[in-house]
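Sample intake sheet
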Amino acid sequence: MLTAGRNIDDLGDDALLAGFGVGDDDLAGEFVRRFQRPVFGIAVGVVGDTRLAEDIAAQTFERAWRFAALYDSRRGTVAAWLAAIARNLAVDVVRARRMAPIDPSDLDALLDAVTWIPERAALAAEAAGLDVRTAMASLPVAQARALVMAAFRGMTAGEIAEVEKIPLGTAKTRIRAGLLRMHAALQPVRQTESDRYG
């Protein structure tokens, strides 16, 4: 596609975002085409509902348009920036719906979204996020499920015990043990970051 001597397909993500932010219709259209699948994939992975994921994807692009001028390439790629926006919006939606009854089988999809996402290559710039997902993936499934319910669904230990059909003490133990294992797994990462930037 050519526009005023430009081959849009050859433009970098930063240039497309800049054009999107200033309202260039051609660049905006290409920007959305380039990123709509990964943004939708993140949203549906977290919320598990295609219609809701479409709304989240639309909100992601609206937010990207409003804040395009604030994007800083030194802090990560455009893909990683968009992925973070989509993920944050999706998690907010999940938290807002936390009081609705949930099917325990839905937690597996949410756990998968937290521990493995197709856009991992795009998110490589977010090293800390990758370290958290890696640490989460190393937990026993019962502990990981408890942490996902507590952190991403905003559920209390009592609610987790009810959903998992386990005693309250067991739910608390799983959350605490999972947090301790996450802390231990991430400690070397924090030390490395401290040494690097300290």
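Comment: Residues 168-197 form the longest helix (30 residues). The two ends are 47 Å apart (CA to CA).
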